[in-house]
Amino acid sequence: MEKIPVAEHLTDSEYNILIETHLKHNATMGEKEQGNYTLLDIVKVERNVEENCLNVYYKNGEWWHYTPNKTWY
C-alpha cells in the first residue's frame, strides 16, 4: 500500500483508519469546503495514545481527531 508521505510512519491499520475516516469526514462537507481538506492538504499525522486516535493536521491550520471507529471530533 502506497501511503501519502506525511502518513508513511503509520501502520497499515492506522493508515486505513486515516483514509476511511477522511472519506467519511469529507463527505459531510460542502464542495467548496472539501477543497481545503484533501489528502494532499494533510501536513501532519500524529498518534494520540492517550485518546486512542490520530491527530490529523491540515494546511489551513485546522486539525481533527480521527478515531478507530471512523468518527472525528
Account of the protein in words:
The chain contains two helices and three strands. It has 73 residues and is an alpha+beta fold. It has one domain. It has a three-stranded antiparallel beta sheet. Strand 1 (42-48) and strand 2 (53-58) form a beta hairpin. The longest helix has 16 residues, at 12-27.
Keywords:
three-stranded antiparallel β-sheet; alpha+beta; 27% helix; 73 residues; 2 helices; globular
Walk me through the topology.
Elements: H1 12-27, H2 31-34, E1 42-48, E2 53-58, E3 63-66
Antiparallel strand pairs: 1-2, 2-3
Report the structural category.
alpha+beta
Distance between the termini: 27 Å
Unreliable residue runs:
none
The share of residues in helices is: 25-40%
Portion in strands = 15-25%
Q: Could you state the order of secondary-structure elements as H and E?
A: HHEEE
Spatial order of the strands in the main sheet? 1-2-3
> How many domains, in number, for the residues?
1
Give a summary of the structure in a few sentences.
This protein is of the alpha+beta class and 73 residues long. The protein has 2 helices and 3 strands. The chain has helices spanning 12-27, 31-34, and strands at residues 42-48, 53-58, 63-66.
